[in-house]
Fold this protein.
Amino acid sequence: MSMRRPRRRLILFLAGLLLLAGTALLASIGPRWPGVGDAVSWKTLPSATGPEEDESGKSPSPAPRTTGEAKNPPELRIDPETLAANGVKLTTLSPVLAPAERALPGRVLDPEPLIAAREALRNAAARLSAARTARAGAEAALSRDRALYHDHQNVAAATLEEAESAFASARAAETEAEAAMEALSAGTRTRWGESLAHDLETGSALIDALISGRERLIALSWPAGEPLPTPLAPARFTLAPDAPPLLLAPIGPAASADPTSATRNLYYHGADPALLPGLNGTAYLPLGTPRPVFLIPPSSVVWWQGKAYVYRALGEGRFTRLPLGDREPSGYLLPAQGLSRLAIVSEGAAVLLSEEFRSSIDLGEGDEDD
């Protein structure tokens, strides 16, 4: 027992020396930045408040580390030499005015229901016209027979009774046709709205174009509980996020809402060949006054966990990652929020994203044991 204890102590002592030596070796090596791409010239852009300075008046050299909490995009510091070696470039944006728009889901409608509605209205109008003609003829015959009957009974009483019966039947048929026409017109106005229903009943160049396929009818879904924008303005319509916007002209709103979807259709029309029946898209309806925004170039956008971001340059190698909203037809827009300019990373943003999370790992952020 006396010999085993010194031996055990010796083994523990040697293991401690090896652990200290390994720690010192790792500290001497440290993290290295892998160079990618060709070196470019680095241009430092001042931030809104200017870089921090020490007592000597010189700006401290930033280290490639992140600060701040892991819940929010942290501030990233990288020295200019490293940025230049990895091809990171900046650009300064000025605000532009973007129209205040409301994004609405839309669908290109099949013309068949519109064709059926026009045919139903035409048939109902034809039946009403025929009933009115028949009633007018029966009324004229009754007036003639009455006159002859009272003029020395040149017409028999039985003939007069037949004329009266024929007139009553014709008048009842006319009343029935009028009721059917009114019910059909009311249903058409409810589904298609006043403007489109009027054109369906009376005929118009727009209806002819929609039925022939020269124009397409598009229904935009407006929330039923919100007041309608008046008047309806022309809208931009996109069939895919990266597709060019198509211009739509307004027709009018439906007279009632759909209870199943709690939306109300706003009808528009467009003539672009890409508007094929059955396609879905997103419409952007102008509402309110234009707002100042920064238009983010595509090369500046990086993706993390399914969301789009842009890196803002704060000056002296300091950056912060800003979230972007949904892509609009003109691109990704960032509200100006009173800024007269915005310096962002225009090339090499993916390098900063990689460094940000590499630095977070080096600092141990997000470690469950902490």
About this structure: The CA atoms of residues 94 and 340 lie 6 Å apart.
